[in-house]
Every structure is written in structure tokens, then in C-alpha cells.
Design goal:
The chain is an alpha/beta fold. It has one domain: Fe-S hydro-lyase, tartrate dehydratase beta-type, catalytic domain (fumarase, Alpha-Beta Barrel), CATH 3.20.130. Helix content is 30%, strand content 28%. Strand 6, helix 4 and strand 7 form a beta-alpha-beta unit. Helix 3 runs parallel beside helix 4. The longest helix is centred in the C-terminal third of the chain and has 19 residues. The radius of gyration is 19 Å and the shape is globular.
């Protein structure tokens, strides 16, 4: 597992170099959008219509911000459970989105789409919402303002911390870590001392 500092938008070479478990600090532009915005965008793609924002080669952060306090650029931002966005993800990757950021495991359809379209799914840690918000240097609503916190926002971020959860090679971090845990658990049980017989 490696550590990278990368500028967005990510190149195809960047995507191919990344492997599950790698730590990445993202600097540059990312977009924030959740369920309601994704539903509208996928409906447009199904009709072969243009999106309100060109998201080709971009990264989408599945999140909605809390209201900012005076002096804040943005309120705390916690990643949404990525599983909720799975029905929309393959269409967005096919369209040209290169990365998404959420939390928790995803379905096989997302793993397959990452491999097919040379894309990546990052994980952000939900408990770091205040820290994540400090990594946002500017924020602007760019589409679907009527959706309020679910509007599409353009963020400029600096050293925004994420992990590679699903890479473009078909690897799944959650699957690997569960297998490691199960193996460790099995070895622990096999090596355990039965003190009743000592």
C-alpha cells in the first residue's frame, strides 16, 4: 500500500497506478452530489441529453454539507453511504466520471464498472467531517440549486484524505480486509491455549 499526493482531474495513468488500500491526498477540483442530483443526471444521460455540469474526468464526492458557521467556507461534510449511489454509478462512470468518494462497501456492479471504464471508488472516513471541511478551500453551487444541500457543488480542496476502496483492476478493499480478518481469526483460534487442560 502506497501514499500519493495527486492533483485533480486525475489522468488515466494516475488511475491505473492506484491500488486498493493506497492513501491519497487530493488537491484541486472535486464535485459534491448525492441521490437527488444523481437521479436527475442519470435521467438526462438516459435521454442522451447534456448534464448541467461537465463531469467528464472529474471526481464526485457523495456528501451534503451542514450549514457553515460564521467565517467557515463550508460546514462539516461527511461522506454519504456509497451503497445508496450504486444504481447510478455505472452510468456516471460510463459517461466519464473518473472517481467517486463515499463510505462503506459497494455492489459488484460498481466494481465491474470501475474495471470497465478505468475508474476508481475512494472511501473517506465519516468521523472526520470537521477535518474534511477544513480541507475545502472554496465552495460554489453549480447546478440544481433548488435541491438545497443536495445541489451540485464545485469544491476546491487541498490534501483531501481518501483511501482507494475499489480500483480499476477489479480489486475490492473491503473483500480483502474481511478475508484477512477471517484468516487472522482462524489462526487465533487454532493457536489459542486451552487453559482447562493446562
Amino acid at each position: 500500500m502506497a501514499e500519493y499526493r495527486l492533483k485533480t482531474p486525475l489522468s488515466d495513468e494516475d488511475i491505473l497506478n492506484l491500488k486498493v488500500g493506497d492513501s491519497v491526498l487530493l488537491t484541486g477540483r472535486i464535485y459534491m452530489a448525492r441521490d437527488a442530483a444523481h437521479k436527475r443526471m442519470v435521467e438526462l444521460l438516459e435521454k442522451k441529453e447534456s448534464l448541467p455540469v461537465d463531469l467528464k474526468s472529474e471526481i464526485i464526492f457523495y456528501a451534503g454539507p451542514c450549514p457553515p458557521k460564521p467565517g467557515q467556507i463550508i460546514g462539516p461534510v461527511a461522506p454519504t453511504t456509497a451503497f445508496r449511489m450504486d444504481p447510478y454509478a455505472p452510468a456516471m462512470y460510463k459517461y466519464g466520471v473518473k472517481g467517486t468518494i463515499g463510505k462503506g462497501p459497494r455492489r459488484q456492479m460498481v466494481k465491474d464498472a470501475c474495471k470497465e471504464y478505468n475508474a476508481i471508488s475512494f472511501a473517506a472516513i465519516g468521523g472526520l467531517s470537521t477535518i474534511l471541511s477544513r480541507k475545502v478551500k472554496s465552495e460554489e453551487v453549480v447546478a440544481y440549486e433548488d435541491l438545497g444541500p443536495e445541489a451540485i457543488r464545485k469544491l476546491e480542496v487541498e490534501d483531501f484524505p481518501v483511501l482507494v476502496a475499489y480500483d480499476a483492476h477489479g480489486q475490492d478493499l473491503y473483500e480483502q480486509e474481511i478475508a484477512k480478518y477471517e484468516n487472522y481469526n482462524k489462526q487465533s483460534k487454532e493457536g489459542a491455549v486451552n487453559y482447562e487442560n493446562v
